[in-house]
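Quick one, probably user error.
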């Protein structure tokens, strides 16, 4: 489903959409996206929080911990909580606006399932933050393990 470009919709718009024989434009876009990138299927979401919730739910994670930067929008922890998981916020580094690898590493435990490493207003993330060395890990902290 794609967000509406023109809001609000008039009753005429809704009536025409309900009774037309036109194919669903969002389905055509998803099929085109899948074909372009060589995937068998594609699913587009109107909001990233919805996609995040779907990813976590489809992965079957329950009662696990997901790390987020402390400055993230409130809808990100809400999506995680609604999926039945716990959120742990990671604060910024002492010398930067973003959490560095040391800040992330302090919070990674055996119960941690995913880290949501995001930039802030153009400040690039520390790519070393994605490497988990806690609990014997040596590779990238991948959400699909």
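Nope, works fine. Designed sequence:
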């Amino acid at each position: 489903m794609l967000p509406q470009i023109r809001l609000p919709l008039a009753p005429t718009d809704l009536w025409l959409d309900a009774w037309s024989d036109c194919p669903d434009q969002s389905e055509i876009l998803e099929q085109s996206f899948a074909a372009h990138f060589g995937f068998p299927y594609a699913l587009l979401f109107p909001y990233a929080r919805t996609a995040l919730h779907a990813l976590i739910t489809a992965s079957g994670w329950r009662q696990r911990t997901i790390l987020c930067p402390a400055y993230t929008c409130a809808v990100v922890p809400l999506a995680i909580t609604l999926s039945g998981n716990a959120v742990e916020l990671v604060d910024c580094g002492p010398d930067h606006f973003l959490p560095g690898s040391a800040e992330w590493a302090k919070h990674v435990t055996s119960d941690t399932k995913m880290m949501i490493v995001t930039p802030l207003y153009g400040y690039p993330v520390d790519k070393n933050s994605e490497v988990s060395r806690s609990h014997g890990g040596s590779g990238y902290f991948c959400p699909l393990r």
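The chain is about 35% helix and 10% strand.
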